[in-house]
Amino acid sequence: MKEYRCTRNEPYTHDCLGKYDLTVRQGHYISAINEEAAWQQMAQRYPKETTVGFTVQEWERFDVKIVEVKRDENGNIIDGNPELD
After folding, report:
1. Among 7, 63, 62, 57, which residue's Cα sits nearest to residue 32?
2. In 1-85, where does DSSP find H-type helix?
3. Can you name the residues that pair with 32 across neighbouring β-strands?
4. pLDDT: which is higher, 67 or 59
5. pLDDT band (50, 70, 90) for residue 78
6. Residue 13 CA, distance from chain mean position
7. Kind plus residue range of the DSSP H or E element containing 2
8. Contact, 28 vs 6, CB < 8 A?
9. Closest C-alpha to 84, from 73, 64, 63, 70
10. Among 29, 40, 47, 65, which has the minimal tally of Cβ within 10 Å of its Cβ?
């Protein structure tokens, strides 16, 4: 199965970036056999929004590594982490 990032197309009612830009909206990550199956899962979750629909995009996960950065009083990195040098 593939993973899809789905967004609800229902317009936001409050004033925020997502009201005008779908790309900044929170995504729902769904595993499905194809885009249509992912859309159907969204329709089951949000049946009142099927008329405005959902945006479905194939998604590929990526690894994220979180590293703590320590700096001295001059702003120089003192951690010694070679990934940050």
Report:
1. 57
2. 35-45
3. 2
4. 59
5. confident
6. 20
7. strand 2-8
8. yes
9. 70
10. 65
